[in-house]
Amino acid sequence: MTDSAVPRLPIDLRSDTVTRPTPAMRRAMAEAEVGDDVYGEDPTVNRLQARAAEIFGREAALFVPSGSMGNLLAIKAWTRHGTEVISEQRAHIAIYEMASMSAIAGCMPRVASAPKGILTWELIEPLIRPKLYYCSQTALVELENTSNMHGGSVYPPAVAEEICDRTHAVGLPVHLDGARIFNAAVALGRSVAELTRKFDSVMFCLSKGLGAPVGSMLVGSRDFIERVHSGRKLLGGGMRQVGVLAAAGLVALEQTPAILHVDHENAGRLAEELARIPGISLDPREVVTNIVIFDVGSSGRTAEEICSALAHRGVLCGPTGKYSIRMVTHYDVDRVGVDLAIAAVKETLAAPSGRAISAR
Ligand code: TLP
Fold first, then answer.
1. What is the DSSP letter of 176?
2. pLDDT-derived band of residue 107, with 50, 70 and 90 as boundaries?
3. Is the C-beta atom of 88 inside 6 A of ligand 1?
4. Backbone angles phi, psi at 179, to 5 degrees
5. Which residue spans within 145-248 are E strands per DSSP?
């Protein structure tokens, strides 16, 4: 979808949040019918919410300004102050949401480290507190699919379903951070409704790979959506003539899932080629969606140094650790852009850094 009027550089692989709205989104935004959404009178928001609920096979949905707010609202809806939320150690809610589960919802995170970010019931069960009056209590289990900080890994459906069944059996709900659930669905060749049917609530982002400029959705039962609706107002997230944004979200929801496979192919190619470069370690077989995280420890340089050298060559990406770098593909970087990025990494790692580069 790269517009020929848009300069190709920089090649921005920092995130799939950086996409600019497509011409179809901009047209829909200009023509959107709007009303005051705090009164529930914005017809475009109402259409987006109805469509999201339909696609996920749920009773209702709510448009929220961001994925972070969506996750926080779900946590607030399922927990009480002083309870605990179980997630994977590198989950977005555990690292990148400003500890809002504690600062605002009053919860303690309990994290487990899972290979590739994929929790199992065996990893979760020991973290669930016994029902004793002097113990803090577990209120919620949260999964993230795809797992961002584990290179866009995807839950095997049976593993996620077993977690939901077993968690329900002990009387607890499961929330899904499905910021990139459409990527998981494409990777598995399954529908988002199938992949999410056992979760009590789902957050998904319109503003990641789907490409909308703003917004995320919560989907679930009518009762859950009523609770997060008033929670959204509490957090100051009630919006007015926001149909201009919902219109872009509707286009993203209807049109982008069909082309997400291109981002996955581009990420696969990127991973294959990066894995061949001396100084980089990466298993390209583990890259199944649109996120590529690789280790540069054996290059003799830090991730920061390499990212800033790449920025000088017009390729943007970000460190995720002292020696790890994340690149995320999306519709504003095409195959040519990916090839330019690969060439830039090769040149950067081949160039003298002022320090010894270990040969591998
Ligand atoms: N992720 C962003 C950064 O915050 C790291 C990115 O560039 O990937 N859940 C997941 C799994 C996410 O990756 C993100 C954003 C969110 C929630 C939050 O969404 P927003 O940014 O809309 O609050």
1. E
2. very high
3. no
4. -45, -40
5. 174-177, 201-205, 216-220
Instruction: Give the total number of structural domains in the chain.
Output: 2
pLDDT digits (tens, 9 = 90+) for 174-219: 999 999 999 999 999 999 999 999 999 999 999 999 999 999 999 9
Position in ligand 1 atom list of the atom nearest CA 17:
7
Q: Is residue 3 a part of any domain in this protein?
A: no
Question: Is residue 121 lining ligand 1, measured as CB closer than 6 Å?
Answer: no
Query: What atom in ligand 1 is closest to the CA of residue 68?
Result: 23
Range of the domain at 106: 23-256
Instruction: Please tell me the predicted confidence (pLDDT) of residue 8.
Output: 66
Pair 45, 56: CB distance under 8 Å:
no
CB of 92 within 6 A of ligand 1: the answer is yes
For residue 157, list its beta bridge partners: none
Q: Is the CB of 179 under 6 A from ligand 1?
A: yes
pTM over 0.90: yes
Residue 264 shares a structural domain with residue 317? yes
Domain shared by 275 and 175, yes or no: no
Same domain, 230 and 343: no
